[in-house]
Write a structure and sequence with these properties.
single chain; alpha/beta; Rossmann fold; 2 domains; seven-stranded parallel beta sheet; 16 helices; 14 strands; 15% strand; globular; binds adenosine monophosphate
């Protein structure tokens, strides 16, 4: 199958050729004809499957066709809402590339920066707007954006959107959006609350599933190392060295943890940097750029910051801790093995996290391969008093986080 066979117009094909996309991915093959046919879509797809192009290409094409006949000022015809600014920037970068030989104009807006440049861009007129929910509603309230002409609405990463507490913002948006519109709904996982939300947004959607709900990407090989809390940092060094890993996205559950890991790696002369919510936007962009260019070898990220990080051919993901919410594991390992590339996900598990592995294996319905041949295996050495105290605190934090997650899920 080629993009030509999907009836993509030559001006977009030219850009795809420059990007070396030789063949549409599975989700693109399924979604593009449906979107071009003006139908709603309910897609269960993880990051890395090529889902951005699956909605962006047909949207650009539909608008391009209208615009090539129109001379009037640009009308905002498509709205793409996504949970994080990194993801918003990433989607906008892709649209920028795919639409370079068309007349389609777009803008991206997100919070955490001054609104002036975003407003200036909007004033010049755009056809596609990529936005995070808070800044979008803010600029609508200030009268800088009107959704009256929206024909295509995309809700991207819907599950993460709810996890981040954006449900009220989404409900407000639904009240403002025109009733008559085409809607595309993307989510990595499809628990009940997401299905309920999708039914409020979509009309007779075509359902697309590129990998089974909650399944881990097939292209990712998963390995599990059992170890102790105190030996994790040594085990990490051992793995980085023996596996010759020079580029890895490493997950830490907390911001403090992320900073601590970076400090430890730097002491060993390993080039590492953290990316999390406490870092300023421009700092995060700088770190990402350096990682992409290979100046930083280990990028340590928290779950929220990692959403939307788009790095071509990211082979390795390491879970420095095991997430207590099994779906988070699926999100994390989805960062490797992108668009048909092989990926490797390595998890380091301390005794207190053993139970989480059971949950994860239940969710993904497979057993993760254990690697026992390493110098830092789990032992039942009792914890020192200081470790016990620290672990009690950590347990409390995890419990609160788990219940907050459950509460959010029940709200819908
Ligand atoms: P996404 O799931 O949208 O985040 O895309 C994952 C990665 O796959 C991005 O780096 C895209 O540039 C890349 N990609 C998307 N579609 C294709 C394709 N048809 N061929 C090769 N790479 C692609």
């Amino acid at each position: 199958m080629t993009f030509d066979q999907l009836h993509i117009v030559p001006s977009i094909l030219k850009a795809l050729k420059e990007k070396n996309y030789s063949e549409p991915t599975s989700i693109q093959q399924k979604a593009i004809p449906i979107v071009l046919n003006r139908q709603d879509v309910l897609a269960s797809a993880q990051t890395g499957t090529g889902k951005t192009a699956a909605f962006a290409l047909p949207i650009i094409q539909l608008i391009h066709k209208i615009e090539s006949k129109s001379d009037g000022p640009a009308k905002l015809r498509s709205l793409i809402v996504t949970p994080t600014r990194e993801l918003a920037i990433q989607i906008a970068d892709n649209i920028d590339f795919y639409s370079k030989y068309t007349k389609v104009r777009h803008a991206v807006i997100f919070g955490g920066v001054k609104q002036h440049h975003q407003v200036q861009k909007l004033k010049k007129g755009v056809h596609i707007l990529v936005a995070t929910p808070g800044r979008l509603l803010d600029l609508i309230n200030q009268g800088f954006i009107s959704l009256d002409d929206i024909k295509i609405f995309v809700l991207d990463e819907a599950d993460r959107m709810l996890d981040m507490g954006f449900i009220h913002d989404i409900n407000k948006l639904l009240q403002i959006l025109p009733q008559k519109r085409q809607s595309l709904f993307f989510s990595a996982t499809m628990p009940d609350n997401i299905v309920r939300l999708s039914s409020k947004i979509l009309t007779n959607p075509s359902k697309i599933e590129v990998s089974a709900v909650s399944s881990a990407a097939d292209t990712v090989k998963q390995y599990l190392y059992y170890t102790n809390r105190l030996s994790k940092k040594d085990l990490l060094l051992h793995i980085l060295r023996t596996e010759n890993i020079d580029r890895v996205l490493l997950f830490s559950r907390t911001k403090h943890g992320a900073d601590r890991i970076v400090r430890n790696l730097k002491k060993q002369k390993i080039k590492a940097a953290a990316i999390h919510g406490d870092k300023a936007q421009n700092q995060r962009q700088k770190v990402l750029k350096e990682f992409k260019q290979g100046q930083i070898h280990v990028l340590v990220a928290t779950d929220i910051a990692a959403r939307g990080i788009d790095i071509d051919k990211l082979k390795y993901v390491i879970n420095y801790d095991i997430p207590n919410i099994a779906e988070t594991y699926v999100h994390r390992i989805g960062r490797s093995g992108r668009a048909g590339e092989n990926g490797i996900a390595i998890s380091l598990c301390e005794p207190e996290e053993n139970a989480y592995i059971k949950d994860i294996e239940k969710l993904i319905d497979q057993k993760i391969k254990r690697i026992s041949d390493h110098p830092f295996p789990q032992t039942d050495k009792p914890m020192t008093a200081a470790e016990k105290k620290e672990w009690q605190k950590e347990k409390q934090r995890r419990k609160q986080e788990f219940f907050a997650h459950r509460k959010k899920k029940r709200m819908y």
